[in-house]
Design goal:
Catalyzes the formation of N(7)-methylguanine at position 46 (m7G46) in tRNA. The protein has 297 residues and is α/β, with parallel strands linked by helices. Helices cover 34% and strands 18% of the residues. It has one domain (14-260): Vaccinia Virus protein VP39 (Rossmann fold). Helix 1 packs parallel to helix 4 and helix 7 (187-199) runs antiparallel to helix 10 (247-255). Bound molecules: S-adenosylmethionine (SAM).
């Protein structure tokens, strides 16, 4: 899982898990592009767990009942699914789709869905790069990016889920007025994201330096719990697509795809908490700054 190793129990066999919780995993998600809300019936067998996606109408639906979810929400980089499950429990009339590239995360998230008996949540083993092959124009009512892998190095900047090109692809699948919400422990990733949102023509609806206090409507994620214990602040940004960006605007965003070190404050001794993935970089830079100060002195 990106920068941190996922500890698995001793007897954890990935293939077994994926098979056991297959009811909550959609292996051919491209099939449902543009019709997730209708294809995944809310009257699926809850005991089985997982939204029931398919082309056969739901037989247990009452007469006159129109199957389908009114809203489809994507939790991109869902990890082990705590956030996905909590939102799905709270909002039964919406379909919650989790997506992750890491099979272990998919297995855990699917287990979580099945064991909770949810019929409005499902996970897709796919990368953010495939988003337009999975969702039709305007299909999503919201995208959440909770503690996305920061990819601090410049050469991996395009992999950041808030890079301008990712944000441009989200624009194409978001419904009018729908928003992308980022939450992160990383002030550099937060500041980088503001440059990219601007370049991709988004309008910021809210930005917070303490989303736990100011936006408690967002359930806690696994990473959030761990990082908060280590003293992390949770930054958040919620933004919606505005007018189409110009090619020059987009290029400005690509030019800002630097190492996240460029977004650190100048005085590194002022940082109390080092964001996930930047421990080595911050310690090296701090030592360098201290050596330079000693040398000048
Ligand atoms: C730091 S974890 C956070 C997990 C979860 N959202 C949380 O807050 O606990 C980041 C997750 O993003 C996933 N990820 C990274 N790049 C991705 C991509 N391009 N598409 C989908 N998932 C991705 C990783 O596999 C990992 O599970």
């Amino acid at each position: 899982m990106g920068l941190t190793h996922i500890r698995t129990p001793k007897n954890f066999v990935l293939e077994d898990r994926l098979e056991r919780y297959a009811a909550a995993i959609e292996q051919r998600p491209e099939t449902y592009r543009g019709r997730w809300g209708e294809a995944c019936s809310p009257c699926g067998d809850a005991a089985r767990g997982g939204a029931t996606c398919g082309d056969t109408p739901c037989s247990s639906a009452p007469r006159g009942y129109t199957p389908g979810f009114g809203r489809v929400h994507l939790d991109l980089g869902c990890g082990k699914g705590a956030y996905l499950v909590a939102r799905a429990q709270r909002e039964p009339s919406a379909l919650f789709i989790g997506m992750d590239t890491e099979p272990i995360c998919i297995a855990y998230a699917a287990q979580n869905i099945v064991e909770t008996g949810l019929s409005n949540a499902i996970v897709l083993p796919r990368s953010a790069d495939s988003i337009e092959r999975l969702f039709g124009p305007g299909e999503l009512a919201g995208i959440t990016l909770n503690f996305p892998t920061p990819f601090p190095k410049r050469k991996f900047a395009r992999k950041r889920l808030t890079s301008v090109d990712h944000l441009l692809s989200y624009r194409r699948v978001l419904a009018p007025g729908a928003a992308v919400t980022l939450r992160t422990d990383s002030q550099p990733l937060h500041d980088f994201t503001l440059t990219q949102l601007d370049a991709a023509g988004y309008r910021v609806l809210w930005a917070s330096n303490d989303t736990r206090a100011e936006h408690p409507e967002h359930p806690e994620t696994e990473y959030e719990r761990r990082l908060a214990e280590q003293g992390a602040t949770v930054y958040g940004i919620c933004a919606t697509p505005g007018p189409e960006p110009t090619p020059e605007q987009i290029q400005t965003g690509r030019d800002a795809e630097q190492s996240l070190v460029a977004y650190l404050p100048r005085n590194l001794d002022s940082i109390g908490y080092i964001p996930l993935g930047m421990e080595g970089a911050v310690l090296n830079l701090r030592n360098r700054q201290r050596n330079e100060r000693a040398h000048n002195h």
